[in-house]
Amino acid sequence: MSARNIFTKYGIYVVLVFLIVFFSIASDAFLSVDNFMNILRQVAVIGIVAVGMTFVILTAGIDLSIGAVIGVSAVLTAQLMVSGVHPVIAIIITLTAGVGIGFLNTYFIHEIKIPPLIVTLATMTVLRGVAYLITGGLPVYGFPKGFSAIGQGYVLGVPVPVIIMVVCFAIGYIVLEKTKFGRYVYGIGSNEEASRLSGVNIRKVKYITYCFCGFLSALAGIVLLSRVNSGQPIAGTGYELDVITGVVLGGVSMNGGEGRITGVITGIIIMGVLTNGMILLNISEYFQLVVKGSVLLAAVSFDYITKKRRVSIEHT
What we know:
Blueprint: H1 3-26, H2 33-58, H3 66-82, H4 87-111, H5 116-135, H6 149-152, E1 154-155, E2 158-159, H7 160-178, H8 180-190, H9 192-197, H10 202-228, H11 239-249, H12 261-280, H13 285-314
Antiparallel strand pairs: 1-2
């Protein structure tokens, strides 16, 4: 195996180790068990959504509405509980709404043939408006005490949000690596027409994929609400950038059909380490946006260059 192939396969792990070493030297507070647990807790919401986004991107799709789904899910759950609805019922209603949003996205994408970028951008805008309509632009608070356990509780010293994230990644891994549905997802992303001719129900797979992403986005909104204990209409703003960056950084191709959930886990942790390290070094929030955007651009560029080189080699 050439040095180039080794870097392509293991480069993301080298980047993670480099960041850990760099921030450990730059900040005395970075290298500790408590801080690493804090990093995992911070990336839990993004990690949950990243599982759904991985499925969507593997089918050569995109979902820019995930941040808005997080926000509207948080305020919907909050408003329901404040109105006297039992937390369990409120959570079920919110998760169902998340699935419904995914269904609506797929309808416009698959049935009307509007590009996913346009559909989900429109959905994002609509849902932001809905979140403000639900709350009147004001935060919602005053929930039952037990609800905070979802975002603030611990099980054997591990934060509950981290456990939820790990379970989501485990489910995503099993589905993508061990089931026929996972093979269909990869097949559609690689060559949708060939998959259709092979008998794959493209329509069904896309509906399930986007609905799954909507479900996990709603779940992330509930976790975020429980963690901050306040329903904010701006919740989830900008999360789509972090999620997509983590997924692409983890090796999932924006063209679809390539990537592994194990790489996504590493990509999300890199984003968490990067954000945490910059905060510890008191780096400006504005500069953090510059860094995150640059990381996304670098990851996408690397994906396209690698794929272009592979295609040129295959044709020689």
